[in-house]
Amino acid sequence: MNYFELFNLPATFDVDVAELSTRYRELQKTAHPDRFANASEQQKLLAVSRTAQINDGFQTLKDPIRRAEHLLEMKGVELQNETQTVKDTSFLMQQMEWREALEDISRSGDEDEADKLERSFKQYRADITHALQDLLAKDDVAATQSAADHVRKLKFMAKLQDELVRIQDAMYD
User: Fold this and answer.
1) Which end of the chain is more exposed for a tag (fewer CB within 10 A), N or C?
2) What is the DSSP letter of 40?
3) What is this structure's pTM?
4) Which domains does the chain have, with CATH numbers?
């Protein structure tokens, strides 16, 4: 299923989330199962299925990582259940530094260091996201493979961010 077609949006990484939300509400109005309360069982099941499809499409397109995965899937690259890791040595070294910083913050409870690390994560994600947007706009195999690596990096960064949030929550409790 091409969710961009479902929402009548161009298949690009840069999505107008406000427009996406508007189209989501419009689609929900037409397909909501309550509208089919007096319909046949088959029509009710189709409405439920269509609503689930609309919900999944909305969740996919509003999340940058899932949106990028969807765009890559449309180009024949499946990332959702893969086990391949990033082979970028500098990124692997950076991962180790970030993990050590998380451990240090967890032990010390240093709020300033936690804030500093959070800014570092945010800047890195912004840089990767910008590069990803450019790569996804290209239509060649090398750019697509590089885009897949960028998505893998963003997925890793999301896990690091979640870990940092858990540490910060524990510090502020």
Assistant:
1) C
2) -
3) 0.87
4) 3-62 (1.10.287.110), 89-172 (1.20.1280.20)
Of the candidates 127, 160, 150, 140, which has an alpha carbon nearest to the alpha carbon of residue 67?
A: 150
Say if CB 57 and CB 1 are below 8 A apart.
yes
The pLDDT tens digits for 13-39 are 999 999 999 999 999 988 877 777 777
Question: Alpha carbon of 89 to those of 103, 132, 154, 156: distances in Å?
Answer: 21, 19, 16, 15
Contact 31, 54 (CB under 8 A): yes
Considering only CA atoms, give the Rg of the chain.
20
> What is the amino acid identity at position 139?
D
Cα–Cα distance, 31 to 51 (Å, whole number): 6
Structure tokens at 152: 């893998």
Rounded alpha-carbon distances, angstroms, from residue 84 to 25, 78, 87, 164:
37, 11, 9, 24
138 phi, psi to nearest 5 deg: -85, 155
Q: What is the pLDDT of residues 61-103, one digit of tens each?
A: 999 999 999 999 999 998 876 667 788 899 999 999 999 999 9
